[in-house]
Structure to design on (369 residues):
């Protein structure tokens, strides 16, 4: 019997996605921050494979081919020299081969082909040119039977989502679409609820949000989407892959955490704990979200937290849980008595972690426009 597809799995219960690629690979020395393009699939494939393996070990049901920002127009943007030696087709082919190899090592893991926004849309070049860029992204995925579904992610304009979904339909695979928006709506002023309705009407089987905003803002945003979809009589599956950092200050700003002066290279003090992620997973699931993963800042242990929290619904724990006990339970084996006292839910659920930086603000009082 063949493996179950994305929509069949979502109908049965929650699906756990993977996490951060460009942020994590930049920290590991494989991606250049600024362009954030994925030439590592060609230059350093072992680095990409290792991160895929870590997410899979942590419990991800889906591995996304590392194709973010692989469009030809992005590879040539702002003097990026990568476009002189590699093309979108080259990178997507390499990414598919890498993710297929890793997925074959796992147990029934789905492969996602990812598409991302085009500079051509921002430059006002029109629907035909933009769809040509999406077609270049999709053509590799459409001919590979191992690619189980397509995801259009990090979209700032619902109009571009509609153009992307229209192009992706030709591949004949399930389509997910996520936007980088918060409660205020998209970059063109389209309200959040309307964005969700338009994605669903365009043909997306799964709709939601990713990146730019933290877990609390993401929950507010997905609730707005759900309310609008219910009101329109539409029922796509809901998906959220939020930022891995706390940033409540930017909830009402259109480009989210980009407005923080510490973005992107000094975000670590804001990093979510595994317990933050567990709380988020439960809240999102109860809200009706069935595809849960992470974006920038979501490390493999965050994905493990998602998988562990939803283990009762999924019917299994991730392999990484063999070396981990929930709520610090393994501390019972510490040689220090004061550490052994922390082995339990009460300690970690009620803890308010300190920043450890006496001269730093709790919230940023300077936001860049």
């Amino acid at each position: 019997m063949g493996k179950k597809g994305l929509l069949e799995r979502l109908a049965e219960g929650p699906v756990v996605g993977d996490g951060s690629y460009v942020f994590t690979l930049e920290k590991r020395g494989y991606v250049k921050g600024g362009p954030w393009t994925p030439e590592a699939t060609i230059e350093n494939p072992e680095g990409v494979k290792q991160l895929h393996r870590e997410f899979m070990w942590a419990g991800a049901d889906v591995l996304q081919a590392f194709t973010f920002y692989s469009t030809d127009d992005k590879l040539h943007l702002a003097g990026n020299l990568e476009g002189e030696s590699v093309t979108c087709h080259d990178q997507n082919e390499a990414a598919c081969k890498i993710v297929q190899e890793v997925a074959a090592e796992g147990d029934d893991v789905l492969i996602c082909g990812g598409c991302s926004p085009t500079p051509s849309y921002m430059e006002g070049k029109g629907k035909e040119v933009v769809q040509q860029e999406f077609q270049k992204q999709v053509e590799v995925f459409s001919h590979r039977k191992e690619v189980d579904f397509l995801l259009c992610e990090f979209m700032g304009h619902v109009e571009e989502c509609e153009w992307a979904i229209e192009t992706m339909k030709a591949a004949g695979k399930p389509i997910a679409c996520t936007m980088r928006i918060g409660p205020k709506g998209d970059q063109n002023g389209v309200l959040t609820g309307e964005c969700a309705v338009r994605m669903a009407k365009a043909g997306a089987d799964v709709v939601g949000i990713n990146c730019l905003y933290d877990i609390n803002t993401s929950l507010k945003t997905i609730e707005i989407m759900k309310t609008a979809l219910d009101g329109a009589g539409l029922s796509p599956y809901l998906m959220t892959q939020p930022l891995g950092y706390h940033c409540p200050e930017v909830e009402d700003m259109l480009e989210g955490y980009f407005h923080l002066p510490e973005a992107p290279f000094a975000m670590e003090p804001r990093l979510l704990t595994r317990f933050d992620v567990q709380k988020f997973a439960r809240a999102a699931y109860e809200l009706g979200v069935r595809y849960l993963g992470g974006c920038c800042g979501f490390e493999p242990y965050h994905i493990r937290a998602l998988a562990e929290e939803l283990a009762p619904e999924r019917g299994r724990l991730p392999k990484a849980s063999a070396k981990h006990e929930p709520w610090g339970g393994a501390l019972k084996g510490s040689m220090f008595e004061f550490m052994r006292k922390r082995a339990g839910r009460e300690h970690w659920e009620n803890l308010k972690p300190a920043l450890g930086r006496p001269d730093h603000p709790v919230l940023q009082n300077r936001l860049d426009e």
Notes: The beta strands are 15-16, 62-64, 110-115, 149-155, 175-179, 206-210, 237-241, 289-292.
